[in-house]
Amino acid sequence: MLKGQATEAKIRAYGMKVGLVLYVAVMMHLDVAFAVALLLKYLLNPSQEHQKAINQVIRYFYYMQYLALSYRGNKLWLILTSNASFTDNLDTHFSS
User: Fold this and answer.
1) Which residues of 1-10 are buried (b: 16+ CB within 10 A; e: fewer)?
2) pLDDT band for position 13 (cuts 50, 70, 90)
């Protein structure tokens, strides 16, 4: 193992965490998709900083489970909007 190279066990543990977070991000939490995409770049050699970052995302998911939008009012309608446009610009992959 080279100096600065993560061990097999750390690489495997990091990969399992990133896989879990990626699934949750794609299915339910699009708000962290960008952060997860950045963490995916380090699957083969995650540093301690990357381990801390993935653990922070998992903590975020844990605490977000207790939060929800609640609407109480006397009107019978509610309009919700979202700006989740993926890869409108194929060159930069930014939404327009």
Assistant:
1) eeeeebeeeb
2) very high
> Given phi > 0 = left and psi -120 to 50 = alpha, else beta, which region is 4?
left
pLDDT in tens, 54-85: 999 999 888 887 776 666 766 666 566 555 55
Greater confidence (96 vs 91) lies with 91
What CA–CA distance (Å, rounded) separates 53 from 47? Answer: 10
> In this structure, what are the phi and psi dihedrals at residue 51, rounded to the nearest 5 degrees?
-60, -45
Which secondary structure element, helix H or strand E, spans residue 33, and what is its range?
helix 33-40
Q: How many CB atoms lie within 10 A of CB 25?
A: 20
20-24: long-range contacts, CB 8 A cutoff, minimum separation 24: 20/58, 21/54, 21/57, 21/58, 21/61, 24/61
